[in-house]
Amino acid sequence: MAEKLKIIPLGGLDEIGKNITVLEYGKDMIVIDCGVGFPDEEMYGVDLVIPDFAYLTQNAKKLRGLFVTHGHEDHIGSIPYLMQQVNCPIHGTAMTNGLIRLKLEEHRLVDAVKLVTHKPGDVVKAGCFQVEFIHVNHSIADAVAFAVKTPVGTVIFTGDFKIDPTAKEGMIDLARLGQLGSEGVLALMADSTNVERPGYTPSESKVAEGLDRQFKNCDNRIIVTTFASNMYRIQAVLETAQRYGRKVAVTGRSMENMIKVAQELGYLKIKSGTIVELGALKSLPKNKQVIISTGSQGENMSALYRMAFNTHKQVDIVSGDRIIISASAIPGNEKAVSRIINELYRKGADVVYEKSEGLHVSGHACQEELKIIHGLVRPKFFIPLHGEQRMLQIHSKLAQSMGMNPRNIQIAENGSCFELTGKTCKVGAPVTAGKVFVDGTGVGDVGSVVLRDRKHLAQDGMIVVCVNLSAEDGEVITGPDIITRGFIYVKESEELMDELREVALEAIERCRRKRVRDWSAIKSAIKNDLSGYLYKTTKRNPMILPVIMEI
CA 255 to CA 278: how far, in whole Å? Predict the structure, then answer.
């Protein structure tokens, strides 16, 4: 049988983030993007969520390269974790590779991994695949789409994109996409993030106008927070500050690193003397100060959070400070952002964050822009990417509204395997895919059972029952002692504590009368009796851990 092209999304479906897709044909395989997801409120203690790389490690000999569309965390954040398990060349644009290099340096992998830098228009051969870099607009510099020529046809990955006619780096290369469409496109894999929004995404130039309105006639210190990766936004802040004779300081490690990389690569144009050390601002009047800060998503360790809650070493928020939040909350971060805004208001700051102020625009295409791409590319098959289930379904309907046969549209799940020939697209056997949790330095050692226990502890607390038993006849020598954490305040519940000791003692005595000497059976008896009693008297279900010592 003739070989088939396999398209396998390992992440980015039914979720926001963790984008990674595999293309496989015969003995060759390439990967498009390798991002992280961020923990939700029930992932207690988890720092990052990365894809399950089992399929890639099993097929490491086939891997010809990793191709990265742009430098956002949901597209590059998992690269160090993948490179610890497999090794292949990484292909990206200058800005993207600059940010990947920072991550590899953090994990001490920079000397072990080959980074290859390309520009839009370049074509890279990787096994049987030819990958063309195509310029697109996004909220980060150097973003690209990929046209992948395979033995059965061309597959286009849009990556994250929008159509911005006034973009400083030039508009998305619609001409090339249209040319590819005329030549024939087998499959389109397109971003679905903003598919629910009608119309067009506003231009980044609108934000510069909004910033100018906020700087004009402001006599107080201005603090701006935005995504550290959005160099266009940071450039606009710098230019606006220069126009009004203000000096700019930067705070927040990720922001400092991003600006350093962007400046080195020429993506950020800064006039000499505009950026100063944070401490140097104190000698200037308030109406000559601007601070660019991390913290637009309410992150606990960010600079804006530390300013708001009085833990920043150099900056205290004072009444009259104008705080400009030039970003929208990523789904799931709304509460964290609201908490910071409330605290800033409490300190008397003037907080500007409403969308109506024109201080943020999305980097993702809305419905009319997506229709333009579908109209230009005219693919035979379509697989929507990058979105939750409703987004994928709405994108499917949008493609149908453009005349596409619904039988040629595939709504995928992470791990789905699509087998394509030049004429067909069929669903093959799924592969291993899922979530791997990163907690501190541990990768994958926190699973569903550990998360379930953490959730249990967070909701109901814990009770430890300690008892010393005689090795000869199982009689109680000391105890049982009851220790609680997160369940009740012991000093105000001495009566309940005494009752719990009695219940535990009765369970132990019952086992002794029955001559039960198996410690696990005794522990189960203590646990079951205490659990039943506690739920009956308190309607709570804490975690109960019996500890038996034999003397």
Answer: 13
- What is the per-residue burial (b if ≥16 Cβ within 10 Å, else e) of 279-307? eebeeeebeebbbbbbbbbbbeebbbbbb
R_g (Cα) of the chain, nearest Å:
29
364 among known catalytic residues: yes
Distance CA 188, CA 378 (A): 8
| Alpha carbons 161 and 440: distance in angstroms, whole number | 32
Q: Are 229 and 140 in contact (CB under 8 A)?
A: yes
385 forms bridges with which residues in the sheet?
191
Residue type, 518: D
Question: Which tokens belong to 517?
Answer: 């000497």
d(CA 19, CA 226): 22
Q: Name residue 247's beta-bridge partners.
A: 289
Cα–Cα distance, 457 to 460 (Å, whole number): 5
CB atoms within 10 A of CB 180: 21
Pair 18, 11: CB distance under 8 Å: yes
The answer to which of 274-283, 379-388, 433-442 has the lowest mean pLDDT is 433-442
Q: Is 75 exposed, middle or buried (0-12, 13-18, 19+ CB in 10 A)?
A: buried
3-class DSSP assignment, residue 471: coil
Query: What are 89's two structure tokens?
Result: 């060349």
* 476 and 85 Cβ atoms separated by less than 8 Å: no
Amino acid at 350: D
Tell me the H-state helices in 431-480.
448-460
Distances (CA, A) of 470 to 480, 505, 508: 13, 14, 12
Q: Which two tokens stand for residue 342?
A: 């409330």
Q: Check whether the bond before 480 is cis (ω within 30° of 0).
A: yes
- The Cα–Cα gap between 391 and 196 comes to 7
Catalytic entry in 191, 321, 439, 529: 191
Q: Is 532 exposed, middle or buried (0-12, 13-18, 19+ CB in 10 A)?
A: exposed
User: Quick one: three-class SS letters along 126-177?
Assistant: ECCEEEEEEECECCCCCCEEEEEEECCEEEEECCCCECCCCCCCCCCCHHHH
Which position among 138, 312, 364, 374 bears the catalytic label? Answer: 364
> How many Cβ atoms sit within 10 Å of the Cβ of residue 83?
21
CB 94 within 8 A of CB 266: no
**CA angle at residue 317 from 314 to 318, to 5 degrees?**
120
- pTM across the whole model: 0.81
pLDDT of 131-158, one tens digit each?
A: 999 999 999 999 999 999 999 999 999 9
191 in active site? yes
Band of pLDDT at residue 471, cut at 50, 70 and 90 = confident
Q: How far apart are CA 333 and CA 336, in angstroms?
A: 5
